[in-house]
Amino acid sequence: MKTAKFEILGLEIPIGKFQEYHDDGLVLYIPFKAEELSETYASKGGIPPCLYALNPSGLAVSHESGIWPFKTQHVHIFYKKGVCEPEEFYVRAHEETHAISMLGKLGFLERAIKHKLKLKKRFRSLGEELRANVGGAYALLSRGFSVDQIRETRPADSTDIALQILGLQ
Question: How far is Cα 141 from Cα 95, in angstroms, rounded to an integer?
Fold first, then answer.
């Protein structure tokens, strides 16, 4: 059976025969890596201009290669070096959560979270970004970081909402 390893979330998940997961690691500039992958997979549409303006901390993208009926889905994550270790873990887990969603395997992460914490809402019912924030907070909690450390790492309303969903508010 083929699996994908999500290091920061601590999960190894079975994936389909025509699915690939790639953790491309640290990059200096997110839009350049996104453009490189777009060229590699000859994706149509190019890179959205807002990506260059935002230059996010990390990104998860999905591309296809091959011809039908053998098209393969390639899900990549990549991220910038964080200011501190908890920030890097959070961003990586956030992007790993997006990747799990793209691969259609959210149930595995939901079960892992429910095994350790109280999940106050159905994971699938959350919006994509909020779900990824829950994944980021979960990864930090699993690694022994406190709620206060998580708030210091990601001081935003979305982090507080993610912690509430995990039953920690």
Answer: 16
